[in-house]
Amino acid sequence: MEIYAALKVIWALLLGFLLTGLAVMVGMDMGVGTLLRFVGSNDAERRAALNMIGPHWDGNQVWFILGGGAIFAAFPTLYATSFSTFYIVMIVLLFSMILRPVAFEYRSKIEATRWRETWDWAFLISGAVPMIIYGAAVGNVLQGVGFHFSWDGQYYQDESFIWYLLNPFALLCGVLSLSLSVFEGGAMLMMRGEEPLYGRARGFAIGGGSLAALLFVIGGIWVQFIKGFAYFGPVDPAAPATPLGGPAVVMREGAWMDNFHAHPILWLVPAIGLFGMIAGPLALAARRPILGWWLGALAWIGTIGTVGGAMFPFLMPSTTKSSQSLSVWNASGSAYNLAWMLAFALVFTPVIVAYTSWAFHLMRGKVRPQPTPGDEHLY
User: Fold this and answer.
1) Residue 1 has what pLDDT?
2) What is the per-residue pLDDT across 25-46, written as a single tens digit (0 to 9) for each?
3) pLDDT, greater one: 220 or 151
């Protein structure tokens, strides 16, 4: 394999790793925000829940930046096309993401019930909406997106964004994403909380993990009847990165299963994901939240890995002109760019993982629902 082709594959794997890190770390914080109104029966309990993720939520945003940055740097054509196609969705996502830090900073500034309950709703919206959008985007990409390029490279969108938001399969994927987020958030509340927060979070987390397992199975069956995409004819992985004049692509039912049929070892990936979704709730039921949290991370790995294994090498297929579908081969940056970015990633990604691990170790322990009102470090 030529170096250029190898760099493309490496960056596809790195992108999967970063998107998984985003789902696990940011999804955990979003899950706590989604559950806040339900696990906390009074202001003290809700403040305790917020302070469980308080030292980490802004640091976890790094994974969000890394995921977007990796797409921008390694797959610029994908970045430009996807952000144009899902423009309205991105605006909704950014609004909800902006709402969350504002809620963290302002919720406890005024000791008024209505004021704080309003910000609690903001946490619910800013926790649930991004995770639904995250999953729905994956569902949309699996179905293909209506876009094409003209001879001069100009992008054209051929479908309404409303269909991207509201089609049934995308909504299923969105609820699956939210369910895994609730599971991870509930496990976090169990790790750092005490009764009654502990017991309430345990119930919601078990429900979230169980629902995720059910939806994952339904989605796995459903995707076999979706028109997937496959190259037919020779493909040069090291060819110049342009979506114009690419090899022929066929759309047919069940095409997303081709990689699994050609490489049966890939079936281990969805098996790992389903195992995490089933074993995770069992671990929480046995009051082992740390194990449950790691099994939830395993469920995310299996879920995102399954999508990547099914779609490879496609990144964003086109239903309008399938030969212009964006893939690992035709949407990447130059070899020079990928090589330099890989060097930086090999240095800074381990640093981020190490720092995140150190921060969680340093801030370990239980948070009790009796915060000191005058402590400026508490939310």
Assistant:
1) 55
2) 888 999 999 999 999 888 888 8
3) 220
Q: How far is CA 107 from CA 86, 101, 122, 129, in A?
A: 31, 10, 10, 19
Residue type, 109: K
User: Among residues 350, 357, 179, which one has the least CA distance to residue 273?
Assistant: 179
Distances (CA, A) of 218 to 167, 169, 225, 269: 16, 10, 12, 16
Segment (H or E) for 252:
strand 249-253
Size of the chain, expressed as the number of residues it contains: 379
CA 303, CA 135: separation in Å to the nearest integer?
Answer: 10
* Whether the Cβ atoms of residue 159 and residue 124 lie closer than 8 Å to each other: no
Residue 231 pairs in a beta bridge with 249
Number of H helices, E strands in the chain: 14, 6
Write down the mean pLDDT value for the chain: 88
Name beta bridge partners: 252: 228
The structure's pTM equals 0.90
Residue 51 confidence (pLDDT): 86
Query: Looking up tokens 């699994």, which residue turns up?
Result: 260
Report which of 232, 311, 319 is spatially closest to residue 12, judged by C-alpha positions. Answer: 311
Residue (of 133, 159, 156) closest to 145 by Cα position: 159
3 state DSSP class of 116: helix
228 DSSP β-pair partners: 252
